[in-house]
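[Meeting: bench + compute handoff]

Bench side (C.D.) handed over the final construct sequence. Compute side (W.E.) agreed to return the predicted structure before the next meeting so the bench team could plan truncations. Sequence as handed over:
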Amino acid sequence: MRGEDLQQLDVFSYVSAEERIPSDHPLRAIRRMVDEALKGMSGHFDTLYAAGGRPSIAPEKLVRALLLQALYSVRSERQLMEQMDYNLLFRWFVGINMDDAIWDVTVFTKNRERLIRGEVAERLLLAVVQQAHANRLLSEEHFTVDGTLIQAWANRRTFKERPDPPARGTGSGGKKLLRDTHECSTDPEARLYKKCAAAAAVPSYLGHVITENRNGLVVQALATQASTTAEREAALAMLDKLKPHRAERITLGADKGYQQEDFIKSLRQRQVVPHIAEYEPNPQWPNFLTEQERSDPGFAISQYKRKLVEKVFGWSKLDRVLRQIKMRGLKRVGWMFQLVAAAQNLRRMQKLLATA
């Protein structure tokens, strides 16, 4: 049974916590935004829990605690519980009294599958984007897409030859690839991949985001298995979900990795103007943009705004959970990737609203 989020708090403990936290602390604005987003998700939480049974930890509190883990670079859920035991700021943000006992770390293990099944991270990200839209922080016409490598919690030595490889491979013309003949024994959905020729191939996933070009806020986030075509496929899938937050005709900036004929044709079919960086013209790899698209004044602006999406990846991977994610399986990785994207938006929106 779902636990109640709003408890009858001890008045003295609650007031003491409010008084000890500075009025201009960034977490105050972030908590207001999180409270508003979770309030709209309350009805959805009711459908994830049984009507009877013993009350569980409120899912809103679990989500707040995981956001703290992303915002403050806490390395693990066990360390998060240790900090919540003595950190008054963390207790106040989550909604725990000063004298309440801290949860056992297995609370996250037992409830994570329920939250993943309910797509809570994706719904939270969309609720935060709605708030940004209401505060006029989003561009509805100009966007950027990019992907990043997420190192899996596995070692390349764990890749073993599969006992039952497929008769036909997944490569072009049915060619067998490494992922068809070998599989990771600790995380079967992770694949050996590298983003550049100079790097070593490591077990990994790919994370993809679409950001708007005004303030660099994430409007769509998605994780996929690593492959050479995953970035373009994920971009089209995210664009199809972007319709509520976009104009009739939009522009999409991207790097040279997205310069592929079928992808650019798919963008035009979706009323998306491709502002994709091009290689120097050569016989081996022609350019696919029209002269009108190439000479559009917004093309240079889209390429300049591409650095905003790199700031998202830089913040998420500098010393946080996405540097090498400790979860195994695509569903868990994708869920955490979307949660970190929501945390990045909250952090960015707090600064934008403060200056405004």
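W.E. noted at the follow-up: DSSP finds 15 helices and eight strands in the chain. C.D. will use this when planning the next construct.
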